[in-house]
Design brief:
The chain is of the alpha+beta class. α2 (about 30-50) packs across α6 (about 185-200), α10 (about 350-370) runs antiparallel to α11 (about 375-395) and α17 (about 510-520) packs across α21. The longest helix is centred in the middle third of the chain and has 24 residues, at about 350-370. The structure holds adenosine-5'-diphosphate (ADP) and magnesium ion. The site of magnesium ion has 4 residues, from α2.
């Protein structure tokens, strides 16, 4: 029997290929991913048939081969998989691929990316026409008595099926690359694409090239001598670690794999091996990196695979936002190769994957915390950011994380939330029964305030990471009867409102006088002078910004929709300690200039201790101080 048939691809439209080409142009390198993964599928299928006893021919060691012939301008993808009969070509290539074609033509206008089109309409094989103006299939089915078949199509809607020439089981897809796509006729370009999509394919991929090279010298006609050079090598690892059982892997295996994925990165802190088969399939390894400051550089480091075929490193919907800084791989056959944005957002499996990952990460952190508290504390500087971000953004994560989240104080001691409350409760409860947590976001700048607070036996938390602004408000919301106050939001003795108040020794008249002197001495706008009765040992002058006002301003700065506060001028309280001996001295001085000079010096000292004295004012202060000595 000889096969010979001409026909037209069953679609109801004139010519679909120009449309494919036009819309898929930007992503056209994925033709190789599609064809290589079809070849891998074909190999996997014949292996499975053999394992099931449905194929008893010679299995051999089936591989996939990609070959570049620069001279002929072809790329050939060959496999020793199960092959196709002419009937199967008709069924799978001619019809199935275009079952949705008329619908496609209606909808293509709305499609946002190439993956969406390919995925929705089963155009994997036809992506070949993005780069080729002639595509040929040579194939021989594994089935007994099958005859080789050849299919050829030039990108119009007609195809031809004739007798083929393949003598061994499997398929060749031969692409005659079109002139616009000649960039793909390059060894390095193909290597790059194969490396990107195929580095971990489960079947060995051999890349062979027949390239023209010009050695020294010329031929008889004075043209450079052309010599064809052939090379080939296997480009992939067929058993990457995420396909293995954790019990069979050592720490070194995980570290080596990390190095393979991110060659120039520091070792990760720890990792989580993911493995689920119900209600969806998912394997993978997620690494916690050492956090650097350039967050953006570190994002998008998780690679998504589908049966070991690389799909994308935009995993935004699969991985919860707060874990976007993690590194590693996720592989799920439940995510189609041609995954598109809109698919990810709508798919219910994706949502389940997302919450599974959240849970696994929480469990792993809890385990580390329980097993090795000290080691966990040492890593807290790096993982704290993830944990706090997760607590703030995901209720479910917070439910678990509240048991292993740590608070760190300025003495670098770590406490769980419960431990911390226990620690400060007795001393730091105010007259209304609220426990006041005092924190610093800049211990160097706020040192004088921290010391003053410590003198009163108050503990000061360190809240100086990028997320802490939000974390402070979050804690205040979540923890019952708790207030958080930045250490410089008022003078130490007023941070926690207690009943015992030190009275100011000044009379009303004296207070008014001191207030007037200071108001005159301060020329900055937005500074409000207030005379308070503090311990004589406390500072004579303290400049503070109200906790509420400052938080609102911080949020406005971070774009938290508080622009009303963002636009308000800064306002500060200047607390004058009426009981300090400096005030006494000012009152005793008759000379108005000297009064003013003393007041100014005291205010500047307060500003200086908080790093608020800068520029010309700082210079003036230094000059004045030199005069004084
Ligand atoms: P999908 O891979 O999603 O099924 P494709 O358009 O990529 O869609 O391929 C269509 C069908 O053509 C495949 O399902 C398979 O039956 C057949 N096919 C494609 N390439 C090969 C190949 N190399 N060997 C055997 N069959 C193939
Ligand atoms: Mg396919």
């Amino acid at each position: 029997m000889s096969i010979e048939e001409k026909g037209s691809i069953s679609i109801h439209t004139e010519n679909i290929f120009p449309i494919i080409k036009k819309f898929l142009y930007s992503d056209n390198e994925i033709f190789l991913r599609e064809l290589v993964s079809n070849a891998v599928d074909a190999v996997q299928k014949i292996k499975r048939l053999a394992a099931l006893g449905q194929y008893d021919g010679e299995l051999g060691n089936p591989i996939v081969e990609v070959a570049l012939d620069e001279e002929k301008k072809t790329i050939t993808i060959s496999d020793s998989g199960l092959g196709m009969t002419a009937e199967e070509i008709k069924k799978y290539i001619n019809q199935v691929a275009f079952s949705g074609a008329s619908e496609f033509v209606e909808k293509f206008k709305d499609a946002k990316d190439a993956n969406e089109i390919i995925g929705k309409f089963g155009l994997g094989f036809y992506s070949a026409f993005m780069v080729a103006d002639l595509v040929e299939i040579q194939t021989l089915s594994y089935q007994e008595g099958a005859e080789p078949a050849r299919w050829v199509c030039d990108g119009s809607t007609t195809y031809e099926i004739t007798e083929g020439s393949r003598t061994t089981r499997g398929t060749d897809i031969i692409l005659h690359i079109n002139t616009e796509s000649e960039e793909f006729l390059s060894k390095s370009k193909l290597e790059e694409i194969l490396d990107k999509y195929g580095k971990f394919l489960p079947v060995p991929i051999k890349f062979g090239t027949k390239t023209e090279q010009i050695p020294d010298g010329e031929d008889e006609e004075g043209k450079p001598k052309h010599v064809a050079v052939e090379t080939d090598n296997i480009i992939n690892t067929t058993n990457p670690i995420w396909t293995k059982a954790p019990a069979d892997l050592s720490d070194q295996d995980y570290l080596d794999f990390y190095k393979q994925l991110y060659p120039f990165s520091e070792d990760p802190l720890f990792w989580i091996h993911l493995n689920v088969d119900y209600p969806f399939n998912l394997t993978g390894v997620l690494y916690f990196p050492k956090v650097k400051n350039d967050f953006d550089m570190q994002r998008n480091k998780i690679k998504l695979f589908s049966r070991q075929v690389f799909i994308t490193d935009e995993v935004k919907d699969i991985v919860p936002e707060f874990l976007m800084l993690l590194h590693g791989v996720i592989d799920s056959p439940d995510i189609p190769l041609n995954v598109s944005r809109s698919f990810l957002q709508a798919d219910s499996n994706v949502k389940k994957i997302n919450s599974y990952i959240t849970k696994k990460v929480a469990d792993k952190l809890h385990e580390l915390f329980n097993k090795d508290r000290k080691g966990y504390e040492e890593k807290w500087g790096d993982i704290g950011l993830f944990v706090k971000y997760g607590m703030v953004s995901e209720e479910k994560f917070n439910d678990k994380a509240k048991d292993f989240a740590l608070l760190t104080n300025t003495k670098n001691e770590h406490f769980t939330l419960d431990e911390y409350r226990e620690k400060v409760q007795a001393i730091q409860t105010d007259k209304n029964g609220q426990v006041v947590y005092i924190y610093s976001n800049d211990p160097a700048k706020q040192d004088s305030f921290i010391q003053a607070a410590n003198k009163k036996d108050y503990d000061v938390l360190l809240m100086n990471s990028a997320i802490d602004n939000h974390f402070v408000s979050f804690l205040e919301n979540k923890l019952e009867k708790t207030l958080l106050k930045r250490v410089d939001s008022s003078v130490a003795s007023k941070l926690i409102e207690k009943d015992e108040l030190v009275e100011s020794v000044l009379t009303e008249e004296q207070s008014a006088k001191v207030k007037e002197v200071f108001e005159k001495a301060i020329v900055k706008p937005g500074f409000q002078v207030e005379i308070v009765g503090l311990n004589p040992e406390e500072f004579p002058v303290t400049v503070t910004m109200d906790e509420f006002m400052r938080r609102m301003k911080d949020m406005a700065q971070m774009g938290g929709g508080m622009s009303f506060y963002g636009n308000m001028p800064d306002s500060y309280k200047v607390a004058i300690n009426g009981n300090h001996k400096l005030v006494n001295r000012i009152l005793k001085t008759e000379d108005a200039d000297e009064q003013s000079a003393l007041a100014k010096q005291a205010v500047d000292l307060a500003l200086l201790s908080q790093g608020m004295l800068t520029g010309a004012e700082l210079t003036a202060f230094v000059n004045r101080s030199v005069e004084l000595i």
